[in-house]
Design a protein that fits this description.
Blueprint (H helix, E strand, L loop, with lengths): L1 E2 L6 E2 L1 E7 L4 H13 L4 E7 L4 E2 L2 E2 L2 H9 L2 E9 L2 E2 L1 H9 L1 H6 L6 E8 L6 H14 L3 E2 L22 E4 L7 H21 L1
Parallel strand pairs: 3-4, 3-7, 7-9, 9-10, 9-11
Antiparallel strand pairs: 1-2, 5-6, 7-8
Helix pairs in contact: 1-6
The chain binds flavin mononucleotide.
Flavin mononucleotide binds next to α1, β7 and β9.
Length: 194
């Protein structure tokens, strides 16, 4: 929890840890941050190739940011039916935290994108939930029934987390709205939990 100097109230910290090459996952990460705005402080952690040396994730600052966070959003494009190797390198580097369950009871959520509507994004989200479970975290899914939202959010009907895909080469606005909603929901849960 960080003290909000203006209001004097403490805001939870939301860490958004993601990998993105061509920018779609990054757009989702920014939307998650917008959704949390005013409810949580946000720390954005974009994994890059430079964080990985000799095959190992070595950015201790990101891991320390999560140490202090109340909630974490995991984001990765779906690559070959799972999270990108760069995200997995980050996850593998969290094993020291795992052995002490240092991230236990933080709220976690996930988001992913793919080129296809059913491009095995579910497997990426499932991986995020397993990672969260290994750390003793509490999972935050989407409470939007697919195909039932008047604004078209949760277009692909994924309630485990946010799954998107590119339509005509770009990200539908409804997916951006879903990401904002997920950020808001995660931040609210974090403020209730912290
Ligand atoms: C190596 C590789 C593997 C991919 N595998 C999948 C896949 O399994 N399913 C899918 O729907 N899209 C797949 N894609 C497409 C990406 O998920 C898609 O281009 C995504 O928007 C990339 O995210 P980014 O813009 O955040 O980098 C793959 C792309 C690459 C480069």
């Amino acid at each position: 929890m960080a003290e909000d100097l203006q209001s004097g109230t403490a805001m939870p910290l939301l860490a958004i840890v993601y990998f993105s090459i061509s920018g779609t996952t990054e757009k989702l990460a920014h939307a998650v941050a917008r959704g949390a705005d005013g409810i949580a402080d946000v720390a954005s952690c974009r994994i890059t190739g430079n964080d990985i040396m000799s095959g190992r994730f070595q950015n201790e600052r990101f891991l320390e940011t999560i140490d202090h966070a109340d909630a974490v959003a995991f984001g990765s494009p779906t690559y070959m039916g799972g999270p990108a190797a760069q995200f997995k390198a980050f996850a593998d580097a969290s094993s020291d935290r795992w052995s002490q369950q240092r991230w236990a009871n933080k709220i976690a959520a996930g988001f992913t994108t793919g080129a296809c509507a059913s491009g095995d994004q579910l497997h990426t989200l499932s991986y995020f939930t397993i990672l969260a479970a290994q750390h003793g975290m509490l999972w935050c899914g989407l409470d939007i029934p697919g195909g039932e939202d008047p604004g078209g959010r949760n277009r692909l009907g994924s309630q485990l987390g946010l799954a998107t895909h590119l339509v005509g080469g770009s990200l539908p606005q409804s997916d951006v709205g879903t990401a904002e909603y997920l950020g808001q929901r995660l931040a609210r849960m974090a403020s209730r939990n912290s």
